[in-house]
Amino acid sequence: MRRGEAGGATLATALIVLLAASLLGAAVAEVARTELVVAESRRTLARGLAAGDACLARAVATLPAGWDQAAALAGADGVAGTGDDGVLAAPAGCVARLVPGPLGAMRPFLDVAVGVAGGGRRLRAIVGRSPAPVPALVWTESATLGAVVGTVTLDGTDPARPDLAPLAAVATPDDPATVDAWFAATPGVGLVGPTPAPVVAPAPPLPATRLRLTAGGALPTFAPSATPPVAGLAATAGDLVIVTPGFGAGVLHVDGRLDIQADFAFSGIVAARGGVVVASGATFDVRGGLWLGVPSFDVAGHVVVRHDRAAIDAADALFTLPRPAMADGVLDR
Predict the structure, then answer these.
(1) pTM value?
(2) Which residues constitute the domain of residue 300?
């Protein structure tokens, strides 16, 4: 081969190598760019998933406890067929709306839309009721729990049902840290064994419970029995004063203050819109659940609340207890 021809071949080879290197470099750059796009898409997806879940949880938490969601479906003005029907409070960037389902207010749909940088997410959940009959041993309208100079003992374990998780000590719509601070400042209050700390839950629907009890034939008066009675329903107006020792069972709703001046034991659910007062030397023993308005406690004597699922179930069989809302199923739309 002549010198000129050899030089030409070398140049051609170099050009081919250079072209191949350029193509390879472009391919590597394209792969890197694609990976960046995919990574950003994954980050957007993760943000959307997290934001959607958080928005749904916040929206469900705003729903009232009860038997259905008729009030929430009617909106803030309480009138069906207006623009605020089903509109729920939601954090910035999130829209939540309740719409009737096939069973109307019993199991409505909750539609949630949330936007994040680069995308968003839309969800639809079926809103049902919590399977647990009560959210805690003591279910209160507020974290303003009152005064205890005696003792309050809360035992969330049910010895007869080791398969059940212990009930939380207190459920309140307020910050549980407020209840923790009250516990710390109130040495007379004690938690037994593995009883969980306070939890967040919507307020107990005390006025609606009274209305339903009255409509269901609950007795308008109550007096303790000398021996443990058959479970029954009672919804009393105003304050109720217990002046003789005795027992009760079922569901007792006091529209005012429950004033315990003698030893009183109850199996089931006791609700008192005006809270409970326990005189010095008296003991109020509840096996089931205690639902209280504000202020909750004025205790100079002793209060004991124990988890007893059999007693709660017996009360629930007599009168369907209200429950917090929960998302039964969730679909991306």
Answers:
(1) 0.84
(2) 136-318
